[in-house]
Design a protein that fits this description.
Elements lengths: L1 H9 L1 H4 L6 H17 L12 H11 L1 H18 L2 H18 L6 H17 L1 H9 L13
Helix pairs in contact: 1-3, 1-4, 3-4, 3-7, 4-5, 5-6, 6-7
Length: 146
């Protein structure tokens, strides 16, 4: 799924020269892949949460914020053992890095970054409910030797 998001986003290089509006073209291609992953026609519009596809998309466009978000994801996972919580917090982290960094001043990218937390919350609503109830599945990062 990461490769799918990355490849679709980078197909832009085959069709357009990298110029000031290039990122808009990349985002449009990547978002189409993301929507197709979350709402696939062939399974009744019920697909995955889109995190991995979105990661591929944003690696192609903004790799440094992705690296920062991955570090945040890893820390949250190690501390809490919740993959879903790590995904939610790292997605919000990515958005904040884009929105607060003057390097990423493209309007389309900023809009995309502002929408990411909303999509994450919508696609993870069941996980969020389970987290609040204490019923979310944990993934042990470091298994004890006992």
């Amino acid at each position: 799924d990461i490769l799918k998001g990355w490849l679709v986003t980078n197909i832009a290089y085959l069709y357009a020269p990298p110029d000031a509006s290039f990122i808009n073209f990349q985002l449009s291609l990547g978002v189409q892949a993301l929507i197709g992953h979350i709402f696939p026609i062939y399974v009744g519009f019920k697909g995955g949460k889109g995190i991995a596809t979105a990661i591929g998309l944003i690696i192609a466009i903004a790799p440094i914020p992705v690296l920062i978000s991955f570090i945040v994801f890893s820390i949250v996972l190690i501390i809490t053992n919740y993959v879903s919580l790590g995904s939610i917090i790292s997605g919000i982290c990515f958005s904040l890095v884009i929105l607060l960094s003057p390097k990423y001043d493209q309007a389309a990218l900023r809009l995309f970054a502002a929408i990411i937390p909303i999509v994450i919350i919508i696609t993870h609503h069941k996980n969020i409910q389970r987290l609040f109830k204490g019923e979310e599945n944990k993934m042990k990062v470091f298994k004890s030797k006992n």
